[in-house]
């Protein structure tokens, strides 16, 4: 009898442990949206910040998830755990399909010195995922009748260089302007650690000749989106950071997102590392990236951004359609639009010192994959692509 009781106890412990792990992976089976309940930020070192949870306390009971989705969630979590154990990943991931969140959690440490774990609420620098957000701002201003993307940038910048007369906002949005990419300049490593104003940033490339005739070719250039940031400020009358906050982050409920002032103090302790150890990345001052890559966010907030964007909350349908229309090299307005494994995917990767990111949206099944890493050697693109192959 004693031996039987021991066996039953072991079996019960195993069942409880498995259920707890499954609950952590399947963080929510309720649709995400603005909810009345607020919870404090889970980052203890930061200021008290309220965050809208992804699960509504008063939501009616949802149908039991299908075994297939449960299996997919567990496969994704196991894949990410293995990568973390192998030293190939540290960060946070959110995966959702059909407005159901499969995985929303952190892996590894946000700050090794403080033993601060990554979570779904950890703030990361999002690098070039800032670009679709900047593009939304431009299209909002067009919808409001304050600018036209087919007009010359010189229509909106009073001190516009002569060489830019033929450059339109459309060219900037689609990386077809020919303006040289200042982050490729040989001296960028010398200046990236020091703060800079947007005007000083533009001065690094404003008097250089164009690489090609505007509209004749595609060449990815951070300079394009820096100029768009200045146009947002000129047309709206607000600093870039304030406009993005008031017109995108606040309406979408993205209260753990904002503009990084440059010194990473807004990240609540998140540190960028080279690899899985404690060697830190070069502490770039993100004022050197401005509207091309200076924003921070969380996996939860970026999911809210995609939801708000595709629900019509941020842009009217006609402007959203323009954003998702591929141009040269399949680049739309702030997004790449391609087919991967027979599925249409709208995405943008990001990379800066100490941060590697990827945001992907699969419109056919309303699936979203968000990968944010504070480890420079992470291959976020490959991780997101692998997860995409596991989605239904």
Contiguous uncertain segments of 5+ residues:
1-63
Q: Tell me about the largest β-sheet.
A: 6 strands, antiparallel
SS-derived structural category = alpha+beta
What is the CA-atom radius of gyration, in angstroms?
22 Å
Shape: globular
What integer is the average pLDDT?
87
SSE ordering: HEEHEEEEEHHHHHHEHEHHEEEEH
Number of helices: 12
Strand order of the largest sheet: 4-3-13-12-11-10
- The fraction of residues in strands falls at 15-25%
Describe the 3D structure.
This protein is an alpha+beta fold. 34% of the residues lie in helices and 16% in strands. The protein has twelve helices and 13 strands. The protein has helices spanning 2-25, 67-85, 130-143, 169-173, 188-191, 198-203, 222-236, 240-252, 290-293, 299-310, 317-323, 380-390, and strands spanning 39-40, 50-51, 91-97, 100-107, 109-111, 116-117, 124-125, 258-259, 295-297, 336-340, 343-352, 355-362, 367-373. The strands form four sheets. Strands 4-3-13-12-11-10 form a six-stranded antiparallel β-sheet, with helices on both faces. Strands 7-9-8 form a three-stranded antiparallel β-sheet. It has a two-stranded antiparallel sheet with strand order 1-2. A hairpin with a 4-residue loop joins strand 5 (109-111) and strand 6. The longest helix has 24 residues, at 2-25. Residues 1-63 have low confidence and may be disordered.
């Amino acid at each position: 009898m004693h031996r039987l009781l021991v066996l039953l106890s072991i079996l019960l412990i195993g069942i409880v442990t498995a259920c707890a792990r499954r609950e952590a992976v399947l963080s929510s089976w309720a649709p995400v949206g603005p909810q009345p309940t607020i919870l404090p930020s889970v980052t203890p070192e930061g200021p008290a910040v309220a965050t809208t949870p992804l699960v509504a306390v008063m939501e009616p009971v949802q149908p039991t998830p299908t075994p297939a989705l449960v299996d997919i969630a567990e496969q994704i979590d196991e894949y990410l755990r293995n990568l973390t154990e192998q030293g190939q990943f540290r960060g946070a991931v959110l995966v959702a399909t059909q407005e159901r969140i499969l995985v929303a959690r952190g892996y590894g440490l946000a700050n090794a010195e403080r033993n601060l774990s990554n979570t779904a609420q950890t703030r990361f620098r999002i690098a070039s995922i800032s670009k679709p957000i900047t593009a939304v701002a431009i299209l909002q201003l067009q919808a409001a009748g304050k600018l036209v993307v087919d007009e010359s940038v010189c229509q909106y910048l009073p001190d516009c260089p002569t060489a830019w007369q033929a450059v339109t906002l459309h060219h900037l949005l689609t990386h077809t302007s020919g303006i040289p990419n200042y982050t490729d300049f040989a001296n960028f490593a010398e200046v990236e650690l020091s703060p800079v104003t947007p005007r000083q940033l533009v001065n690094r490339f404003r008097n250089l000749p164009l690489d090609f005739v505007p509209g004749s070719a595609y060449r990815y250039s951070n300079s394009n989106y820096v100029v768009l940031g200045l146009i947002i400020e000129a047309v709206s009358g607000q600093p870039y950071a304030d406009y993005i906050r008031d017109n995108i982050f606040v309406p979408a409920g993205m209260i753990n997102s904002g503009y990084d002032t440059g010194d990473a103090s807004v990240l609540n302790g998140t540190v960028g590392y080279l690899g899985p150890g404690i060697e830190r990345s070069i502490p770039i001052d993100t004022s050197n990236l401005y509207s091309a890559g200076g924003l921070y966010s969380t996996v939860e907030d970026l999911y809210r951004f995609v939801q708000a964007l595709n629900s019509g909350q941020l842009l009217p349908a006609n402007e959203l359609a323009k954003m998702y229309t591929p141009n040269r090299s399949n680049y739309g307005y702030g997004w790449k639009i391609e087919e991967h494994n027979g599925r249409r995917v709208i995405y943008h990767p990001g990379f800066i010192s100490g941060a590697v990111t990827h945001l992907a949206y699969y419109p056919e099944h309303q699936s979203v994959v968000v990968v944010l890493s504070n480890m420079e050697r992470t291959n976020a693109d490959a991780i997101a692509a692998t997860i995409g192959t596991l989605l239904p």
